[in-house]
Amino acid sequence: MREVKNTCPPPSHQSSLNRQILFYDGDCALCNRSVQFTLKHEKNHELFFSALQSNFAKTELEKHGYDFSQMGTFALIIDSKVYYKSDAALNLSKFLKVPQSWFIVLKIVPKFIRDAVYDMVARNRKKWFKKEFCFLPDTEMKKRFLE
Description:
4 strands; alpha+beta
């Protein structure tokens, strides 16, 4: 694995304040591949990750009214603001290098259309993406996964 410099506060600070955190379904192959894609293409190492199944995610997202019955909807916190569905996916591109960061231009598509496509993929993701996944972050990357 490549060397990762962690310039963020250590994960022992159990709050999302002043943190950028991607909450994803830890039991979903597509979601895990998305995390790996983000790690591979990120421009800085300022993003933290947390599985929606973790106690940390439950504590943090309950503060924002996240509906845990809909595990197909990941969330992204940037500067204490929470984004869901297509807004989360597109705002994630702000953390990526060029050309991946250009996905942000899809914000011109009306939200109701983007979210409809997002919901369709979310409903079918476990059917369409069944391949086993086994991602083991190195020691430095583990510091960015909040439990």
